[in-house]
Amino acid sequence: MALNLLREILADVFSTDAEEITPETDLYEDLYADSADLLELRFILEEEFGIRDADADALAQMATVGEIAAYLQAMEE
Question: Helix, strand or coil for residue 12?
Answer without folding.
Answer: helix
